[in-house]
């Protein structure tokens, strides 16, 4: 088994019309054995930017604190919140620093640009491999052990200009459909939909076998 699959877990992010969504499963495993069913892999970077970290659980904890420190330092130095695209490049450079002994994480970044940005409230999504090569997408990005199944589901369900509720339904069906076909992900899911006004967080039930 690959070390990337040791703890399992999957994350997907999608663009909508002036909104963006990110969802992850809740399983923490030790190969085929399930250890916990409440392991959220998505973390708030700012009020409008979220980071998904599927991969090795110890590296999830390490990188969560590393990015929290670096984002706080950016905010102190620049006296403003970090934009999603800028944060994606911060993630890339942080991973590339360790390219000869990499973190076993393939991050997903999503968010909305701030109201005072050149293009306000613009949806942004990106994914990275474990040494920081960024993939910018116009529709969706996936990562984790169910990524090939997520690609298939998302290709079939995603449409342009989805509203917040439609986007929630689309990303939920995409994730739940993929989780049923992957033994290393599942045991519930959590979905966050980010709009200019608020962030909506919903927990989903999935198969428990």
From TrEMBL:
GO biological process, any: proteasome-mediated ubiquitin-dependent protein catabolic process
This protein's GO CC annotations: cytoplasm; nucleus; proteasome core complex, beta-subunit complex
Pfam families noted in UniProt: Proteasome
CDD domains named among the record's database cross-references: proteasome_beta_type_3
Main location per the UniProt record: cytoplasm
Claim: Cytoplasm is one of the keywords in the record: yes
Compartments where found: Cytoplasm; Nucleus
UniProt superkingdom: Eukaryota
Similarity comment: family membership: Belongs to the peptidase T1B family.
The protein's role, per its UniProt record: Component of the proteasome, a multicatalytic proteinase complex which is characterized by its ability to cleave peptides with Arg, Phe, Tyr, Leu, and Glu adjacent to the leaving group at neutral or slightly basic pH. The proteasome has an ATP-dependent proteolytic activity.
Name this polypeptide is given: Proteasome subunit beta
Protein source organism: Acaromyces ingoldii
Organism placement in taxonomy: Eukaryota, Fungi, Dikarya, Basidiomycota, Ustilaginomycotina
């Amino acid at each position: 088994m690959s070390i990337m699959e040791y703890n399992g877990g999957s994350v997907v992010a999608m663009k909508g019309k002036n909104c963006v969504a990110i969802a992850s499963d809740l399983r923490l495993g030790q190969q085929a054995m399930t250890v916990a069913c409440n392991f959220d892999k998505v973390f708030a970077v700012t009020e409008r930017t979220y980071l998904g970290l599927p991969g090795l659980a110890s590296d999830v904890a390490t990188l969560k604190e590393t990015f929290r420190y670096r984002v706080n330092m950016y905010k102190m130095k620049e006296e403003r919140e970090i934009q999603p695209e800028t944060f994606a490049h911060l993630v890339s450079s942080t991973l590339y620093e360790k390219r000869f002994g990499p973190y076993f994480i393939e991050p997903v970044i999503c968010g909305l640009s701030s109201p005072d940005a050149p293009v306000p409230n613009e949806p942004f999504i990106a994914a990275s491999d474990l040494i920081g090569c960024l993939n910018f997408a116009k529709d969706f990005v996936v990562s984790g052990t169910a990524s090939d199944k997520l690609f298939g589901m998302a290709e079939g369900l995603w449409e342009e200009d989805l509203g917040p509720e439609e986007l929630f339904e689309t990303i939920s069906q995409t994730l739940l459909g993929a989780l049923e076909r992957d033994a290393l992900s599942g045991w519930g899911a959590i979905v966050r939909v980010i709009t200019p006004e608020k962030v909506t967080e919903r927990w989903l039930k999935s198969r428990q076998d």
